[in-house]
Design brief:
Elements (H helix, E strand, L loop, with lengths): L5 H11 L5 E3 L2 E3 L3 E3 L4 E2 L3 E3 L3 E3 L4 E2 L2 E4 L2 E2 L4 E3 L3 E7 L4 E3 L9 E5 L4 E3 L1
Parallel strand pairs: 2-5, 3-6, 4-7, 5-8, 6-9, 7-10, 8-11, 9-11, 10-12, 11-13, 12-14
Antiparallel strand pairs: 1-2
């Protein structure tokens, strides 16, 4: 079995996306992006280029780009997340800290992170 680094996955997906979305109802998506089935997105969500959102995810009040979010995640951080890999069924919520440059995350399955 060959192990693949999270950074390799992010760069690989960056090369394979080709979908451009748009802006509507407090949600802005700038492609290329991939959004899975049965997701709840918004309000106040920015999905930047080279981002993949897995099935059944919930995103509210957050910005994310150049990242992979796996199935069943909930992100309500109020923060900017960049260059990240977030594992299946993980939760990322706000801790009221203010960091302007963005957070870089690698989070395993069923994890909880407070930003």
């Amino acid at each position: 079995m060959r192990l693949v680094s999270p950074i390799f996955l992010i760069r690989f997906f960056r090369l394979t996306y080709d979908q451009i979305i748009g802006s509507f109802g407090g949600i802005c998506a700038i492609g290329p992006v991939i959004i899975g089935k049965d997701c709840t997105i918004g309000p106040n969500v920015y999905i930047g280029p080279y981002t993949s959102i897995g099935d059944e995810c919930i995103l509210k009040n957050t910005e994310i780009e150049n990242s992979i979010v796996m199935r069943g995640c909930r992100i309500e951080s109020g923060k900017r997340i960049v260059d990240s890999l977030i594992g299946n069924y993980s939760t990322v919520v706000d801790s009221n800290a203010n960091i302007l440059q963005g957070h870089r995350l690698i989070i395993g399955e069923r994890s909880f992170a407070q930003l």
